[in-house]
Amino acid sequence: MTSRASLGLLAVAAGACVVVEPTPEVWPDFGGLDAFVAEAQPVLAGRCANPSCHGDPARPLALYAVHRHRLDPADTYLDAPLDEAELAHNFRQTGAFLLEVTAAEASLLLTKPLSVASGGSGHTFGAVFADTDDDGYRTLRAWARAALAP
Length: 150
Hints:
The chain is an all-alpha fold. It has helices spanning 3-13, 33-47, 84-95, 108-111, 135-148. Helix 2 (33-47) crosses helix 3 (84-95) and helix 2 (33-47) runs antiparallel to helix 5 (135-148).
């Protein structure tokens, strides 16, 4: 893995305010954008993209979502679907949490939002997922497992 990709993981692991994204030449496929959009994006948009959390561009895992933070500020709070650039951004931001992990369950993508009582690592604004039986958690876990599959 290149040093730039490693920096992305370090920024995420350290709780930095920005995720450094690897260049497209070294970016893993993670199952492709279409699978991300169909599976992970709805969970992230519904559970994580609130403007007070990851809908804030200064936060780690800064996400775009309909009716929320958008690439073009004029589209904020509008009904327009996300465009290709916004979806690709969300895909890279989310994929950065899977860099250099071998098991989806070990990634901050799944441990950070999970309640501490269920094995999570603690989320600043409380647990997003109460336990591993939560439908959103299971959907995100399934996408992450498939994304890491050889």
